[in-house]
Give the backbone structure.
Amino acid sequence: MPIVSRHLRAVSVATAVALGAATLTACGSSDGDDQAASGPVSLTYWAWAPNMDKVAALWNRKNPDIKVTVQKQASGDDLVTKIITASKAHQAPDLVQAEFQALPTLVSNDALADISQEVGGVKDEFAPGLWQQTTLGSDAVYAVPQDSGPMMFYYRTDLFTQYGLKVPTTWDEFAATAKALKAKAPDRSLTTFSSNDAGLFAGLAQQAGARWWTTEGQKWKVGVDDAPTRKVADFWGGLVAEGAVDNQPMYTPAWNKALNTGRQIGWVSAVWAPGVLTTAAPDTKGKWAVAPLPQWDTAKPATGSWGGSTTAVTTDSKHKAAAAKFATWLNTDPEALAALVKESGIYPAATAAQTGGALAKAPDFFANQPDFYTQAAAIAKTTAPAAWGPNVNVAYTSFKDEFGKAAKARSKEGFADALTAMRAATVADLKKQGFEVAP
């Protein structure tokens, strides 16, 4: 296999990725090695979602010639590193569960195969904004969407009524609501700005139209501080500086207590929030409702993603067609999707599975809002495109450090400075890795 230069791999979201994928496929599996020619095939699948082995068992019972063995893994950066290490040693599994933002990193390290020929026809099963993230803006397809995390606004219905608040439909209304609540109840906050999970901020920037990583010719262009992201940073920095919202991190005992006692009466989160609220604020069951995120432009409704993963086929797999067939079944077959919801507790990326069936009934915590998943499905369809790069982990780490300091200081200027520092750290790391970066 010809060696793919570092700068060519850097443009894995543009035209060069198609060239690289064609080259890489030659040294991965060939369709001639697939199941029909040599009898039964055994595939290995690295995944972290719980009970994925039970879902795979449904496939194995109906497809005795293509057996899938699930090997449970840790999630996040640890798994990405493990996949890359295994790929460099040509010992990667056939399939991997990969978060959307990890795809460019895996592609730029030659770890994922282009399965565009094997998964033809499934594109329309998913929201355009989700499918786009598996193509990296090219004609290639590097994974099939598995689950998603459309963002929504959660609020305490009883306390909104008590303080005469209306559910905000725009971000301007959101700011006004936060200030109105503070004026009426200084000890309560509409929400908090948290710096300990960069996924929240990334999703808000995505909703605003941000493009954090794009390409310019043979170079990466880092837009971590682009105009949409600066708009989001300025908005939240202003609220924090004024004291209109809290500045404490999420997932702490203090944050749990604020939710449980009503000191925080709203939360910008994602579709998986009911599970968190169940443990963080057990005394508030039946008092919450969900609504779409406030909008920057109500004529063009959009939401961001906070979480979500895919099923990808590796370049090491000797059975690419068989692996792609399983990935397609896993994420589009009604029985498989129902099992993913029941056994793995995911919110499926496939739009047809987001209402009815296993999701016909609202989460227990939201029994007061029987149309919970109907609303969630409508919101999910508005998922905005996202642009990820090969060093998301560095950008996220810098966000936690820089925005953590700005939030603690309650400084609006600090939020702007944090964004500048976040971009600088991202650019420096890309250059350190040997990538070319556009000004």
User: Anything to note?
Assistant: Confidence is low (pLDDT under 50) at residues 1-32. The longest strand covers residues 144-156. The two ends are 32 Å apart (CA to CA). Residues 412-432 form the longest helix (21 residues).
